[in-house]
Amino acid sequence: MSTQDRLDRGEVKLNSRRQNGVIQPLLTDLYQITMAYAYWRADKTKDTAVFDLFFRKNPFHGEFTIFAGLEECLKFLENFNYSDSDIEYLKDTLPTIDPEFFDFLRKLNADGITVWAIDEGSVVFPRVPLMRIEGPLIVAQLLETTLLTLVNYASLVATNAARYRLAAGKNVTLLEFGLRRAQGPDGGLSASKYAYLGGFDGTSNVLAGKLYQIPVRGTHAHAYISSFSDCEELKCRTMKHKETGEEQDFIEMCKNWKTELAPFFALMKEESSDGELAAFASYALAFPEAFVALVDTSGLLNFCAVAMALNDMGFIPKGIRIDSGDLAYLSTLSRATFERVATKYNLDWFRTLMIVASNDINEETIWSLNEQGHQIDCFGIGTHLVTCQRQPALGCVYKLVAINSTPKIKLSEDVEKVTMPGRKDVFRLYGGDGHALIDLLVQTGEPAPEIGSRVLCRHPFHESKRAWVNPAKVEPLYKMYWKDGKICEPLPQLVEIRQWVHESLKTLRQDHKRNLNPTPFKVAVSDRLYHFIHDLWLENAPIGELS
Q1: Computed from CA positions of residues 277, 279, 282, 284, in that sequence, does the dihedral angle turn out positive or negative?
Q2: The pLDDT of residue 472
Q3: Domain boundary among 329, 351, 376
Q4: 258, 308, 410, 480 - which has most CB atoms within 10 Å?
Q5: Range of the domain at 326
Q6: Based on the domain organization, do 146 and 13 belong to the same domain?
Q7: What's the domain count of the chain?
Q8: Strand order in the sheet with 378-381
């Protein structure tokens, strides 16, 4: 039995957690290695640092983001070490480096790192650090690029998926169909995983289903229909009744139903393709309990004929998929047709047959379809979901905020790029109606805000923007997730994180989540942190001279 087979059976574990093999210390930018060498040469191997990982702007013109990728970051820390082949490659790539540095690099691991983080799946906002990384300067620096790549795309896709869920509503099924459009196989797998985390119900990606226990869904393509010419070519023609086991010529039943239903559709049966009927019937023979047909307007007759034949054999078909044309019109026409058939033949289930739409759909398409009163039960979404065409990157950054316990501030002419120095904790303050009011950053060690006690919340950079908040609930957002080489918190299953996304979004007022002109969610600092930031700013800002 191969190692892969044993991994699949759970007989072998890779440092207790499996991870994509491409996620390793060399999945980084070269300058992380060169900086590590320069630190080493400068005798900074004992220096400690604190880094904040955060983003500056919500994606997709919205006012919220979903934090994702934390579990992959923790797995990366578990497996962080440079292999012999890594060291040999780096020696070839950087031949002028002192060989003793590679001995130092070979012994590095993440045991000295401590990670504080917000729970994965939480709704988060700009400037609030998603993760705080503390520990040896060189190791913390070497983690930067890999942690960013694990969080950036994951959070972007999860946020995109959550926005689709808000647009579609809670009663519509959302399926991710993006593998063939994704940025390579790794992008495809990540998209499937984090689209599910963000609120989708399933994926067409079979490997993602296997690896992450995501429900997989799929029917057939146009190629399947085009491969049939007429019913006479079908060699497999019979089906056994679900209850009685009696075997009948299913193809002949479909043809008879087509003849009966044609006048009902105001069509001559010749106006509907016999090849399409053969394809539908053949697919129904293969999947009598999960029959979904890819149809256009003329295909409704053939679908209904096969559906009625399945009903005669004790089976209930699932529905249709529409992949082109005017989705609002076609879904409404299809639903009306199903209701007419249901009434004529007294079959209530026919009214509720599923209508799936999958025609290059984006978020705006769904909002437009909502306004048009569509009858779609399920959206299959690919390109716009997995490629995040509206915004291809989230823009998380990883900034040094303390070195050897000394707070550090990065100054910029662009105030949005000024960092908030030092170790910080973050609390979410809630109002009496249960909705989140504000995220408050405080200095670590500063007294936490208390329920029923007024706290002054200040904009970090604008002196006049401030407000008193009397919270009805105070939620600390950080947990210690990694220390002394171990994960410190139980990691939830993907389906549990998916549910947490739903619960976390419910804490926001609707105006923060609306599609058009959403209200920004406030992020503030305590009065003590505000003054600390500005005192350090003045300390570090150069003083000009006039002459």
Answers
A1: negative
A2: 98
A3: 376
A4: 258
A5: 219-376
A6: yes
A7: 2
A8: 202-203, 173-176, 378-381, 354-357, 319-322, 292-295
